[in-house]
Amino acid sequence: MIIVMKSSAKERDIENISEVLSKHGLGVHISNGSAATIIGIIGDKAKLGDVNLELMDGVEKCVPIMHSYKLASRDICPEGRIARVGDQEIGGNALAMMAGPCAVESEDQIMQAALGVKAAGAKFLRGGAYKPRTSPYSFQGMEDEGFKMLRKAADATGLKVVSEVIAADQLDVAAKYCDMFQIGARNMQNFRLLREVGRSKVPVLLKRGISSTIEEWLDAAEYIMSEGNYNVVLCERGIRTFETATRNTLDIAAVPVIKERSCLPVIVDPSHAAGKSAYIAALSMAAVAAGADGLIIEVHPDPKSAMSDAAQQLTPEGYQSLFERIKIVAQAVQRGI
Amino acid sequence: MIIVMKSSAKERDIENISEVLSKHGLGVHISNGSAATIIGIIGDKAKLGDVNLELMDGVEKCVPIMHSYKLASRDICPEGRIARVGDQEIGGNALAMMAGPCAVESEDQIMQAALGVKAAGAKFLRGGAYKPRTSPYSFQGMEDEGFKMLRKAADATGLKVVSEVIAADQLDVAAKYCDMFQIGARNMQNFRLLREVGRSKVPVLLKRGISSTIEEWLDAAEYIMSEGNYNVVLCERGIRTFETATRNTLDIAAVPVIKERSCLPVIVDPSHAAGKSAYIAALSMAAVAAGADGLIIEVHPDPKSAMSDAAQQLTPEGYQSLFERIKIVAQAVQRGI
Amino acid sequence: MIIVMKSSAKERDIENISEVLSKHGLGVHISNGSAATIIGIIGDKAKLGDVNLELMDGVEKCVPIMHSYKLASRDICPEGRIARVGDQEIGGNALAMMAGPCAVESEDQIMQAALGVKAAGAKFLRGGAYKPRTSPYSFQGMEDEGFKMLRKAADATGLKVVSEVIAADQLDVAAKYCDMFQIGARNMQNFRLLREVGRSKVPVLLKRGISSTIEEWLDAAEYIMSEGNYNVVLCERGIRTFETATRNTLDIAAVPVIKERSCLPVIVDPSHAAGKSAYIAALSMAAVAAGADGLIIEVHPDPKSAMSDAAQQLTPEGYQSLFERIKIVAQAVQRGI
Amino acid sequence: MIIVMKSSAKERDIENISEVLSKHGLGVHISNGSAATIIGIIGDKAKLGDVNLELMDGVEKCVPIMHSYKLASRDICPEGRIARVGDQEIGGNALAMMAGPCAVESEDQIMQAALGVKAAGAKFLRGGAYKPRTSPYSFQGMEDEGFKMLRKAADATGLKVVSEVIAADQLDVAAKYCDMFQIGARNMQNFRLLREVGRSKVPVLLKRGISSTIEEWLDAAEYIMSEGNYNVVLCERGIRTFETATRNTLDIAAVPVIKERSCLPVIVDPSHAAGKSAYIAALSMAAVAAGADGLIIEVHPDPKSAMSDAAQQLTPEGYQSLFERIKIVAQAVQRGI
Fold first, then answer.
1. CB contact (8 A) between residue A219 and residue B105
2. Contact predicate B93/B99, CB 8 Å
3. CA distance A77 to chain B (A)
4. Which of D29, D62, D211 to mutate against chain B (most B CBs within 10 Å)?
5. Would you tell me which residues 236-295 of chain C have a C-beta closer than 8 angstroms to some C-beta of chain B?
6. How far is residue A271's CA from residue A237's CA, in Å, rounded to a whole number?
7. Which alpha helices (H) appear in B200-253, and where do they start and end?
8. A75 CB contacts (<8 Å, ≥6 apart)?
9. pLDDT of amino acid D46
10. pLDDT in tens, chain B (337 residues)
11. What are the counts of helices (DSSP H) followed by strands (DSSP E) for chain B?
């Protein structure tokens, strides 16, 4: 932490701050710039406890110089982590390919989807059983019945199940059916839920909040990791901006930024970013070229009849053809698939 | 719902859509513009169930023309609703003045705060017992102990307690101590929680999500109201934008927009919007002049020692002096206080 | 400027930076924090010329601690500046009230508008002769003919003319007809134009760019002032955010922020912020309550026939009635009008 | 254009609107939905001239259904346009590779840069002679001297010159030295400048404004094309959002959106988007994989001494190595280079 003093700060103000810091076992380095005095704090800021320096007389602002996350940082694991979901790895050389419908709608629908994405080459079956929806009058998902259908389709095809959880009290049931819990964008800062999935042993796919900064996203991952669950995978899915041509704005730069700052794998969801199936191929290939560790793509056996987010779902055939194109880009950046 | 066809749409495409609509008991009005054909749907769109028209051949886009919320809309209650919290009203002529510290920190701190804000003229005591924090390493609140301290301070001073709840499983306990539940910005789309507070009989203060549109906010209110709890008060607290001079950007226009679209009372939180105590007076007076039904302001007996959000908390004296200035602006717009 | 070193920085890296700084006549203060070393620069950073410290080995980031504007800062003129437009003052106790149509459309239209706003109590007549429009196929203004009509209407009513200029080569002509030049939001960073109005002697109304930070806005004012023209008035007119309920999001907090950081007067344009006449009254009163030095409001004798931005223009009668309400709020905050 | 009536609209309101429309030679199609009446306008909306329907009694809102640009639209040229800059093409199979320093600083600097980027395989030399800078106290470019140095370096190496122009009155001089004019992000809505480059015969690289929607960007292109200059190339360079980890947020989806809506070629500027050289490789490869027609990358012979934007410039060696990686991704998406 650095304290920048106002140009009008008095000698006495600086002495006061020094006293407070030394009383808390912290050292100071005072730098009398020509325009302002800067006080650098030496030692662990946590020792300050409840003292708020920004309110002390003469203080212009306090500038944090460290990230607040530790376990999720690159420093702690420079080679990067690999998340393990059963016998599958995420974050190694091979891309993790996840696909399936936005929502589980029926046993037949999810089975058809599973067969289609398996045939293309995917290793994970996605599908929402619990659907957070903006309006209370929209379809809210098949809930636990949906989990069962997912499990059955996944078992029949040899896929892993990744599905959203929305509340702490459902985790025990969900863990019976899911190989990986998804935390949706709206719950990225549902800290109670983050702590609970952190206490479970189930791998977690943590979507970025629609208006969360990368730092807040890593802080959210830290909530999970601080409870002992290190099997966390980040998922960039677009952020909210002024642009309305796409549903969200895919922040493709989040991929290299995460690779620099964090040890966690990061995949991309081009479907929610685009909101329109016509743009999914371009975003998928961009994500792989940028260094993403995988893709989660919405695939529905009959998109026209989908009960949610129909405009952004591919057919199984569309997915298979996209999969082949992705393979070629993956090779170009020396990734397996 | 209006369907705009592509300029390249074929006669057959339009016939297909008409067939689908009539099969679902809906009428159509086709308008052959010189540039594009428009299909207007006659009847209740809900009859369409799972049919997604946007994916049908020839369709350029579908334009919704109705709001998705009903109970929260102005249409249903043109005179506006008044929320009742015990013997207090929110949404009538008198402004609802809520104040107190960001977080409950000790029995003494909350009692001092209660005495101070009561002396100024406030009717509601705010204070966080459960604190959602960005980092897992920050102070997370005193939890149920905090609720008890709040209740005691409120009872001693004759104030109502408004405090944040963060999970469905805590509502029974929280209801013992709180007169009004606050749903924080991060939980505005925690639909499970919204439904549960909707099932309770406790009045709800619903903060706007940091990047939620006004329409999404009203949809969130609809979640609560659709469960039978109509005692909902909205709270504008600033949105996330590119500007960093303030913690958030207070969307002051949300006040007249809400008054036009919704029957619900709306108050303003200048403290979280500003993030800096120096700006709170200006924002408070602006909110009252714009027609807000009240203000929720952070007041701490000793801001310099506050354990969270210290920079934005007023002293009791600062609040009392602000209260007097607000009173004058309230009179100017013919509001009591 | 503060230099934050990477935790992996080597002793040699720090020595290198110290050498570079001392070679340029700058002092250093090195602060060995437990987590990172911080180097504070002592002296005028400008001495560094073209050296970019952020690229030197071991550097994590450089944190500026000073504003880049000087003449526009509050420090240089703590009591605040008053802009003078003929015998009118902006920034003193009395609010500067500006009103008139979005665009000048005819001699009759602007004369009717002038009579209407004069009758209400306004002192400035606004009206666009040059209209920057998003599409080349939209009405682009009456250009110099419009200036002449403005002048005539203003002379007949005793109002001052404020009108937008869009290019350096039109300033000589524009200066014959305008008492105050308006720089529109789209030209806030047209630096060539800023310099030229800075070289003129005509007072300038500088609108905030649609996505400009307050710091960038003050830098733009500095461009004008650095050429010798100190008669600059800032105008907050809403910023671009994700919210679509209003045309732009009025950043009401910009008023107290400007008052804190800058010596320049600041007025508010509620019309462009709202984009809808129904919200203008609320925003106008909020602006005055927040401490704005004036208001610029769109008034058209016949809004339904307006050639641009019709939805946001008031009738003269609407303006007169609003004016009376504003007067009462102005009194409440001890301002004249 | 579609007119959505309020649910409270009266029969008489609808008749009024129909009368106005038919008086202007337009047809109507009235659709009595169960919730609201919709009026579709048949014919060219331009016939309405100055009539503003949104202000007529009973009108809820007007929904445009057509783009305002025509020449820039895909409809008019479904196969896409190829821009020609001398013997170079942009928009064909081969990627257009542009590179060079942010600013021209000296004859030696630009010559070294030209040699370096030519050796890598670039065909265009970029370099700013006129530099719009946020602060008046920053380096503003070498102006016409810079143009001459660019020309000399380009002639010596067989590259095309692309450089920014900032005012109409400099175009004659600039045209002597530049093969392609760049319109910078800050000038994307400097309509006077757009018209003038439209009247010139020089190809134009049109950068997207920092907070411009894709529709506004295409409207800006339409300004140029409507004056007869069809040699326009769009350049996505990142938009302003709440995220601060990168200088701007690269809107990678703009590439497929432009390909769908417009006939114009689109290239990507990863340097201004990233703001940090470490992220440029990832963004460059993502852009090519997404279908961009080229890349403009900042390369400086000695980034540490660069006079502007140093943190985002690559060395010639860095560029050469990136060029080889881009080549492989280009092959994967069947593009030449």
1. no
2. no
3. 20
4. D29
5. 239, 241-246, 249-257, 259-260, 273-274, 278-279, 281-283, 285-291
6. 8
7. 214-225
8. C7
9. 67
10. 778 888 788 888 888 888 888 888 887 877 776 667 778 777 767 677 667 787 788 888 777 767 789 999 998 899 999 999 999 999 999 999 999 999 999 999 999 999 999 999 999 999 999 998 888 888 889 999 999 999 999 999 999 999 999 999 999 999 999 999 999 999 999 999 999 999 999 999 999 999 999 999 999 999 999 999 999 999 999 999 999 999 999 999 999 999 999 999 999 999 999 999 999 999 999 999 999 999 999 999 998 777 777 778 899 999 999 999 999 999 999 999 9
11. 10, 14
Q: Nearest residue on chain D to A278, judged by CA atoms? A: D256
ipTM for the complex shown: 0.90
Instruction: Give the integer Cα–Cα distance in Å for A103 and A95.
Output: 24
Using CA atoms, how far residue D199 sits from A175, C138, D86, D226, D227, in Å, is 66, 19, 18, 9, 5
pLDDT at A92: 97
Q: Do C123 and C97 contact (CB within 8 A), yes or no?
A: yes
Collapsing DSSP to helix, strand or coil, D151 comes out as helix
The amino acid sitting at D255 is V
A69 contacts on B by Cβ (under 8 Å): 135
User: CA B293 to CA B264: how far, in whole Å?
Assistant: 10
- Give the number of C-D residue pairs with CB atoms closer than 8 Å: 110
**Does D223 touch chain C if contact means CB atoms closer than 8 Å?**
yes
CA–CA dist D60, D3 (Å, integer): 8
> Is D217's Cβ below 8 Å from some Cβ in C?
no
Q: Which of B216, B268, B285 to mutate to test the interface with C (most CBs of C within 10 A)?
A: B285
Q: What is the rounded CA–CA span in Å between residue A180 and residue A85?
A: 7
**Rounded CA gap, B300 and B306, in Å?**
7
Residues 172-191 of A with CB under 8 A from B: 186-187, 189-191
Residue environment code for D98-125, b if the CB has 16+ CB neighbours within 10 A, otherwise e = bbbbbbbbebebbbbbbbbbbebbbbbb
**CA-derived radius of gyration, chain D:** 23
CA distance A14 to D129: 46
Name the strand (E) or helix (H) holding D31.
Answer: strand D27-32
d(CA D122, CA D116): 9
Q: Is some CB atom of chain C closer than 8 A to the CB atom of D137?
A: yes
Residue of A55, A226, A306 with shortest CB distance to B52: A306
Structure tokens at A224: 């999970």
Side chain identity at A221, as an amino acid letter? A
Give the C-alpha distances (Å, rounded to integers) separating D223 from C136, C188, D70. 5, 20, 10
The torsion angles phi and psi of C220, rounded to 5 degrees, stand at -65, -40
Residue by residue, DSSP assigns C271-299 as HHHH-SGGGHHHHHHHHHHHT-SEEEEEB
**C-alpha distance from residue A83 to each of A54, A76, A203, B294, D89 (Å):** 40, 16, 7, 49, 46
D169 at interface of C, judged by CB pairs closer than 8 A: yes
Question: Which chain C residue lies closest to B246 (C-alpha atoms)?
Answer: C253
Identify from A8, A21, A34 which residue to disrupt to test chain C contact, counting C C-beta atoms within 10 A and taking the largest count. A34
Residue in chain B nearest C283 by alpha carbon: B290
Contact C23, C77 (CB under 8 A): no
Task: Kindly state the tokens that stand for A330.
Answer: 């993956």
What are the angstrom distances between the C-alpha of A224 and each of A78, A156, A195, B237? 20, 31, 5, 28
Q: Encode pLDDT of C71-100 as tens digits.
A: 999 988 999 999 999 999 999 999 999 999
D213 vs A: CB within 8 A:
yes
